[in-house]
Write a structure and sequence with these properties.
- The structure is a single chain.
- The protein has 366 residues and is mainly beta.
- The chain is 12% helix and 40% strand.
- It has 4 helices and 21 strands.
- It has helices spanning 2-19, 21-27, 78-91, 304-307, and strands spanning 31-32, 43-53, 61-72, 101-115, 122-134, 141-144, 149-155, 162-171, 178-184, 191-196, 201-207, 213-219, 231-238, 246-249, 252-253, 256-261, 270-274, 285-295, 334-336, 352-354, 358-359.
- The two termini are 22 Å apart.
- The mean pLDDT is 91.
């Protein structure tokens, strides 16, 4: 697999550099794998690659470091610095199209300018890391808003001040009332994430073990991106750290009005319900995929590199490993890549489906 990814990555890097106007203004089309004899300076050369496989049982992935060389004979290092800055603009965290691969992240990890022993030539060296996975695909399940929901009674992990929740959603047209995406406790009275379909806003509530509210936040804008189209909802919070609440639809932050935020433990571990609450009331009407929940783990989703552990640069799901442990190195409590938690690849055991989930016609990786 690595050889195929290497070639595709080199082609994508070359295409990005050739297409970039700032690079072109400095070196024209002089971007080479093997520079010709009598080459005109300045120019850029694609150098060696170092590849580390990052495969799971089901998805091939790689982490590849590509070295780029800049060569200049202009007096002083200014031109070399300018070319390397242009390369940075063309590649670093850009949305490169890599054939047969999903790009999770491309970033610069090293840069240096050296003066060659001839005393004339300046040599710039930069290294870019490409984290890719072979075309990841995932299924999706339909929750009909009437009969379908999932539940798991009992204790699932330990209560915590932290949680991270990720789910790809494609809601049907909004109707009046509340739709509970995630609920913990008896009827969601300890932690709940729900959509108010009348206002198309999102709300997050958390309570301690005696029912005192310790977290309440509502979105100040609608979540229309997830109505009739796929969007990955990502939420994380650490109540020990003020200002730590992160809510995203893909890479777009959802502004939240936070009215309660108390340094206290939420009762996040018992009586899970997904897609509804209180024996299935307030059900969601949506297609669901890429479901991941980690009680006691906080992933700062405000950092793009952390969001890229769950979604690619376009906001599409990426492979999270056979047990969902790739984002944090720890298996989450719940991981249902196809949206059906009756087969939970996380650590807390399977949920029970009431109703009958059916396959959706589309998925967030289409």
């Amino acid at each position: 697999m690595s050889g195929h990814a290497t070639l595709a990555i080199r082609k994508a890097a070359y295409a990005a550099l050739v297409a970039d106007s700032d690079v072109g203004a400095l070196v024209g089309d002089r971007i080479y794998d093997a520079p010709p004899e009598g080459v005109t300076f300045p120019y850029v050369q694609l150098g060696d690659s170092i590849v580390t496989d990052n495969d799971t049982q089901t998805v091939n992935g790689s982490e590849e470091d590509l070295v780029l060389h800049t060569w200049s004979r202009q007096r002083g290092r200014k031109e070399t610095d300018q070319v390397q800055a242009a390369i940075y603009g063309a590649l670093h965290r850009q949305d490169l199209q890599i054939s047969g691969q999903t790009l999770i992240l491309c970033n610069r990890t090293f840069e240096q300018v050296l003066r060659d022993p001839d005393g004339v030539t300046y040599h710039g060296v930069s290294r870019y890391r490409f984290l890719t996975m072979e075309g990841y695909t995932v299924g999706a399940k339909s929750y009909d808003g009437t009969n379908d929901f999932a539940s798991k009674p009992g204790t699932n992990g330990a209560s915590s001040k932290q949680f991270t929740f990720v789910c790809a959603l494609n809601f049907a047209s909004p109707a009046a009332g509340l739709q509970y995406i995630w609920a913990v406790g008896s009827g969601g009275n300890r932690l709940s994430i729900y959509k108010n379909t009348s206002t198309n806003t999102l709300a997050i509530e958390g309570f301690n073990s005696i029912g005192t509210r310790v977290l309440f936040a509502t979105s100040t804008t609608g979540i229309s991106a997830a109505i009739g189209a796929w969007a990955v909802l990502m939420i994380s919070v650490d109540l020990a750290t003020p200002g730590s609440l992160r809510v995203y639809l893909g890479h777009t932050a959802l502004p939240m009005a936070v009215t309660t935020f108390t340094d206290a433990t939420m009762a996040t571990a018992s009586n899970w319900e997904f897609g509804g609450r209180s024996a299935g009331s307030n059900k969601i009407a949506a297609c669901v995929s890429h479901l991941w929940y980690a009680n006691g783990q906080y992933v700062d989703l405000g950092v793009e590199a952390n969001r890229r552990k769950f979604i690619d640069q376009f906001g599409r799901p990426v492979g999270l490993g056979d047990t969902g442990d790739l984002p944090t190195g720890t298996q989450p409590h719940l991981f249902a890549p196809n949206g059906d938690p009756s087969t939970n690849l996380g650590s807390a055991g399977n949920m029970t489906i009431t109703g009958a989930l059916t396959d959706c016609a589309s998925s967030p990786t289409d």
